[in-house]
Design goal:
The chain is α+β, with helices and mostly antiparallel strands. It has two domains: 1-54, no CATH class; 56-88, no CATH class. It is built from four helices and four strands. The strands form two sheets. A two-stranded parallel ribbon has the order 1-4. A two-stranded antiparallel ribbon has the order 2-3. Strand 2 (27-30) and strand 3 (33-36) form a beta hairpin.
Amino acid sequence: MAGLIIRNEIGKTKQLNFAKEIASAGDLEIMGKKYPRIQILTVREILEGKRFNTPTVSARGEGQLALSLLGADRGWLSDLLQNGGVSP
């Protein structure tokens, strides 16, 4: 996920270009909910209270349980990387 904070509003052409890039990046699904991989907010929007659409901390407990079930306590990520399951 990436969040870009911009100082000023952008013009129509840049908005269209950013919209294309955001659409091509797609969404990231976490625990059944989709989040945009790329998001843009202006400083004004942040000052008005708008925030990036990200997973909440409250979902953290379930994710940690899932990691525990996968063997996180035994270094499952190291094992996976060493066995060629994922490129580092």
